Automatic annotation (TrEMBL), chain A:
Its main location: periplasm. This is Thiamine-binding periplasmic protein. Keywords: Periplasm, Signal, Transport. It is found in: Periplasm.
Length: 324, 519
C-alpha cells in the first residue's frame, strides 16, 4: 500500500519536475512537415526538459503577439524573426542579449547582432520554370524592359514582400520609385503572403515568382523535378536571415540559453535544408542537390537599424508607383 | 394570448442583443485606449473610398444576378434541383485562398478560358484588378443572396400564386403584384449583407486586386496591427469603417419596408408552368449559374484528388478540431439568434421601426474587422486568462458572432410569420410553452433553422481570421493546415486538404440544410 502511494506521489510530481521551455515560432516551423518535431525530440533528449513550440502565424504576427502580451508573456524564446523585424523587436525591450560564447555563424555577411542568433538564411530571387522561360532577366532593369510576368508579395503583410522592397531600395535608393514604376506592368498581382504567390506561380499565373534561391532545391530533392531555377541578378541578391532571441522575462534563463546554443549544433542545423529549404546558419554539410543552386556573387543586406529606418519611405515609393 | 412568458422573452432578446454590441464595441474601445489614437491620413480616404466602392458594386452585381436566378429556382421544378440548392452553399464557405485558386483555374492567365483563347491566338485573360475582386465576390455571395431570396419566394403562400394563375395573371402581372412586394422586403437586407461582407474583404482584395491600388481598409488595419503595432490607428480605422457601415445599414433598414408577414398554408413544393422563351431563359440562366459556381469547385476537386493520399494523422486531428469548432459555433449562433429573433419579433409588433433599427445594429458583427476583434479581445483578456486555453473558445465565439446576421435574416421573417399564423391558432387552442413551440412555431422555423445552423457550421469550418493571432500548434484547424502545407511547398497535399475542407464544410451544411428542408 505504502509503495503504491509513493509511486502515485512520484507520478504526480514528475510532470512538475520536468522544466518546460516555451518557444514561439511561426506555424510552418512547427508543422509536421517543418523542422519542429525533429528539433523538439533532439533538444528534449539533450536537456531532459520539455520543449513546447507554439506556432503563431508568421514572423510579424509573432512580434505583434509579443507586444500584446508584454512582459507577461509565457514565451522563453522566440524563433523565426527576420532582419527586417529584429530592430522593432529589439526596440520593445523584451529581449535579453544572446549568450556571449556563441560560435561564429557561416553567413556571406558579418554578423554582429548582440541580441539575436541566426539559424537559417537564403537569398531572395525570382524563380522560373526553365521549360517556359529560356532566358530569364538578369536585373530589375531588364525585367522591367521584358514582358516577363511576375507575382510578388505585399510588403505590408509578408516578409518576402518586405525583402523585395529592401532589395530594390538597397540597389536603387532614391531611384527605387522609378524602377517600381517600370516594373508595374510586369506585376500580375501582389499577394498577402508567400504561399499565395508561390501557388499562383505553380498554377501558371506568372512566369516568375519572388521566392528564394534555395526554392528549386525543394522541387529537385522532394519531387525530382529539375525544371525550377532562380534568375541570377548581376547586381546582387538581398538576403533573408532568420533569427532567434531569448526573452528578458523568461523564467528559464539557463534553458533558454541552452536552446540558443543548441541552434548552432548539427541536430538543429541539419534538419533545416530539407524542411525549411533554406541554408543552415552554422557550418553543416548540405544534402545532395544543393550544389546545383545558383549562388549570387554579391550578397545584399541592410543593417537592421538602417532597414527599419528606410522602410516607411521605401513603402511610400512602392505604393505610389504601383497604385497608378 | 400566451401572456406570461412574453416580457421574459423580450428581456432575454434585449440582453442577448446588447451582448452582441458589447462584444463588438469593446475590442475597438480597448485598442483606442491602449495607445494614442491614430490620425486620419489623406491616403486613408482613398482607401475607404475604394473599399466602399468595391463593396457597393459587389452587392449590386450579386443581387442583380440573384433575383432572376432565385426566381428561376423558385418557379421551376427539375431533376437535381435539390442538389443545386445544396451546391449554392458551397462557395460561401470556402476559405478565400482555396476559392481564389479554384477561380483562377478557370479565369486566370493560366486558366481554362485563357487556354481556349490561346488556341484562337488571343492573349491570356487578365482579371486582376477590380474585375477580379468583383468576380470573386459574386462567386462567394451570389449563392448566398439566391438562398436568402428563395426563402422570400418560399414565404409567398402557394394559394396566392394559384390565385394569380386562376385570375389569368400574365407573368409580368404576377411579378408586379405577388413577387415584387416580397422582393422589396427581402432585397435591401440581402444586399446589405453582401455589402458588409465585402467591406471587410482582405485576402481576395489583396490577391486578385493586382496591387496596392486595390487596398481595402481591412488591409490597412492588418498593417497597423501586425506590421506597425499601431493599435490606436487600427482602432481608429475600425471605428470609421464600422461606424460608416452601421450608418448605411441603419438608413437602408429604415428606408426599406417593414416585413409584413402574410398568412397562408405552408408553402408547398410545386412548380409553375413556364412556356416559350421564358422557359428557355430560365434554363440558360440556371446553366450559366451552374457553370459560374460549379466549374471553380470542380477545379478544386480535380486538383485535390491526387493530394488526398498524402494526408496524414495531423490533418485528421485538425479535422476533429475543426468539426468541434464548427458544431459549437453553430449551436451558439442558432440559440443566440433565436433569442434575439424572438425579442425582435415582439418588438416589431409594437414598434416596427425600432425593431428594424435594432436588427440593423446586429449587423455590426459583419462590419467589425476580425483582426480588430481578435486583437482587442486579446488585450481585454490579457493577464486574466491563459491565451492558449481560450484560443479555440475564442474562435467559436467570434465565428458564432459572424454568422449571427445570416441566422437573423433567415429567422426573423419566419418567426414573425409563424407567430401571426399558427401562433394565433395555438393561442386560440391554449397551447403554451414548449408545446406551442413544437406544434405551432417549429414547423415554420425548421427551414431557416437548418439553413442558419448549416451556414454557421460551415463558415466556422473555413475560418482563418481569428485563429491566426490566437492560435498555437495545438489549435491548428483544417484551413490553417492548408496554409501550413502550402508554406512547406507541399502544394499537392494542400490541394488535398482543401478538397477535404470543401467536402466536410459542404457535408455539414447539407446535413443541417436538408434537415431543415425536409418539412
Amino acid at each position: 500500500m505504502r509503495h503504491a502511494l509513493t509511486a502515485l506521489a512520484t507520478l504526480a510530481t514528475l510532470p512538475a519536475a520536468a522544466q518546460e521551455l516555451i518557444v514561439y515560432t511561426y506555424d510552418s516551423f512547427t508543422s509536421e512537415w517543418g523542422p519542429g518535431p525533429v528539433i523538439e525530440a533532439a533538444f528534449e533528449a539533450e536537456c531532459g526538459c520539455e520543449l513546447t513550440f507554439v506556432g503563431t502565424g508568421d514572423g510579424a504576427a509573432m512580434v505583434a503577439r509579443l507586444q500584446l502580451e508584454g512582459a507577461g508573456t509565457d514565451a522563453d524564446v522566440v524563433l523565426g524573426l527576420d532582419t527586417n523585424l529584429t530592430h522593432a523587436a529589439a526596440e520593445t525591450g523584451l529581449f535579453a542579449p544572446a549568450p556571449t560564447d556563441m560560435p561564429a555563424p557561416d553567413l556571406p555577411v558579418v554578423w554582429e547582432d548582440p541580441t539575436f542568433v541566426p539559424f537559417d538564411w537564403s537569398y531572395f530571387a525570382f524563380i522560373y520554370d526553365t521549360t517556359v522561360l529560356a532566358e530569364p532577366p538578369t536585373s530589375f532593369e531588364s525585367l522591367a524592359e521584358s514582358d516577363v510576368s511576375i507575382v510578388i508579395q505585399d510588403p505590408r503583410s509578408s516578409t518576402p514582400g518586405l525583402g523585395l522592397l529592401m532589395w530594390v531600395d538597397a540597389l536603387y535608393g532614391e531611384e527605387a520609385g522609378a524602377i517600381w514604376g517600370e516594373l508595374a506592368d510586369n506585376i500580375v498581382t501582389v499577394t498577402p503572403g508567400w504561399s499565395e504567390a508561390y501557388g499562383l506561380f505553380l498554377e501558371g499565373e506568372a512566369d516568375m515568382v519572388l521566392s528564394y534561391t534555395t526554392s528549386p532545391a525543394y522541387h529537385l530533392i522532394a519531387e525530382e523535378d529539375g525544371t525550377k531555377a532562380a534568375a541570377p541578378f548581376e547586381a546582387g541578391h538581398y538576403m533573408q536571415v532568420e533569427v532567434a532571441g531569448q526573452l528578458a522575462s523568461t523564467d528559464q534563463p539557463e534553458l533558454a540559453e541552452a536552446f540558443l546554443r543548441f541552434i548552432a549544433t548539427p541536430p538543429f542545423q541539419s534538419a533545416l535544408p530539407t524542411t525549411q529549404w533554406m541554408y543552415p546558419a552554422f557550418p553543416t554539410p548540405l544534402p545532395e542537390g544543393y550544389e546545383t543552386l545558383h549562388v549570387p556573387e554579391t550578397a545584399l543586406l541592410l543593417p537592421a537599424e538602417e532597414a527599419a529606418a528606410r522602410r516607411d519611405a521605401a513603402l511610400a515609393l512602392w505604393r505610389e508607383a504601383l497604385s497608378r | 394570448m400566451a401572456g406570461g412568458a412574453e416580457p421574459v422573452i423580450g428581456a432575454v432578446g434585449l440582453v442577448l442583443g446588447l451582448l452582441v454590441l458589447a462584444v463588438c464595441a469593446a475590442p475597438i474601445a480597448a485598442l483606442m485606449q491602449a495607445a494614442t489614437p491614430g490620425t486620419w491620413a489623406g491616403a486613408d480616404t482613398a482607401i475607404l473610398r475604394f473599399t466602399l466602392m468595391q463593396a457597393v458594386l459587389s452587392a449590386l452585381l450579386s443581387v442583380a444576378l440573384a433575383v432572376p436566378l432565385a426566381r428561376a429556382l423558385a418557379l421551376r421544378r427539375f431533376p437535381g434541383r435539390g442538389a443545386l440548392l445544396t451546391l449554392l452553399g458551397a462557395p460561401f464557405l470556402l476559405p478565400a485562398l482555396v476559392a481564389v485558386l479554384g477561380l483562377l483555374a478557370i479565369w486566370g492567365r493560366g486558366g481554362v478560358i485563357s487556354d481556349g483563347l490561346a488556341l484562337v491566338g488571343r492573349g491570356p485573360l487578365d482579371i486582376y484588378g477590380l474585375g477580379g475582386i468583383l468576380l470573386a465576390h459574386v462567386f462567394f455571395n451570389l449563392p448566398l443572396v439566391t438562398r436568402l431570396l428563395l426563402q422570400g419566394w418560399a414565404a409567398i403562400p402557394a394559394e396566392q400564386l394559384r390565385l394569380a394563375a386562376g385570375l389569368g395573371f400574365r407573368p409580368a402581372d404576377q411579378f408586379r403584384h405577388v413577387e415584387w412586394p416580397m422582393l422589396r422586403e427581402v432585397v435591401p437586407g440581402a444586399a446589405l449583407l453582401v455589402f458588409l461582407l465585402c467591406t471587410t474583404s482582405f485576402a481576395i482584395a489583396l490577391t486578385l486586386g493586382g496591387g496596392p491600388g486595390s487596398t481595402t481598409v481591412e488591409v490597412a488595419i492588418y498593417q497597423a496591427i501586425r506590421f506597425e503595432f499601431d493599435l490606436g490607428r487600427a482602432g481608429l480605422l475600425a471605428l470609421v469603417q464600422t461606424g460608416l457601415c452601421l450608418c448605411l445599414a441603419g438608413l437602408l433598414m429604415l428606408a426599406g419596408r417593414p416585413v409584413t408577414a402574410q398568412g397562408g398554408l405552408l408553402p408547398e413544393a410545386g412548380g409553375v408552368e413556364r412556356h416559350g422563351w421564358r422557359r428557355g431563359a430560365d434554363s440558360a440562366l440556371l446553366l450559366g449559374a451552374v457553370a459560374l459556381l460549379g466549374l471553380p469547385l470542380l477545379a478544386i476537386v480535380l486538383r485535390g484528388l491526387p493530394g488526398l493520399a498524402e494526408l496524414d494523422g495531423s490533418v485528421l486531428r485538425a479535422v476533429g478540431r475543426s468539426l468541434a469548432v464548427a458544431l459549437s459555433s453553430a449551436a451558439i449562433c442558432v440559440l443566440w439568434a433565436l433569442g434575439i429573433a424572438a425579442g425582435l419579433v415582439r418588438l416589431a409588433e409594437r414598434l416596427p421601426r425600432l425593431a428594424r433599427a435594432a436588427e440593423g445594429a446586429m449587423l455590426i458583427t459583419l462590419a467589425v474587422s476580425p483582426f480588430v476583434l481578435a486583437a482587442g479581445l486579446f488585450l481585454l483578456l490579457r493577464g486574466r486568462v491563459d491565451p492558449f486555453a481560450i484560443a479555440l473558445p475564442m474562435v467559436v465565439l467570434v465565428n458564432a458572432l459572424m454568422s449571427l446576421p445570416f441566422a437573423l435574416r433567415a429567422l426573423v421573417p419566419a418567426l414573425a410569420l409563424a407567430r401571426r399564423t399558427d401562433g394565433r391558432l395555438a393561442d386560440a387552442l391554449g397551447l403554451r410553452g414548449w408545446t406551442r413551440w413544437r406544434v405551432a412555431l417549429l414547423p415554420r422555423l425548421r427551414g431557416p433553422l437548418g439553413f442558419s445552423a448549416g451556414l454557421a457550421a460551415a463558415l466556422s469550418m473555413g475560418d482563418l481570421g481569428v485563429i491566426a493571432l490566437f492560435g498555437s500548434t495545438s489549435t491548428s484547424t483544417l484551413p490553417l493546415v492548408v496554409y501550413q502545407l502550402m508554406g512547406a511547398y507541399r502544394m499537392e497535399a494542400a490541394a488535398g486538404a482543401a478538397l477535404l475542407l470543401l467536402a466536410l464544410s459542404l457535408a455539414l451544411f447539407a446535413a443541417f440544410d436538408l434537415w431543415g428542408r425536409r418539412a
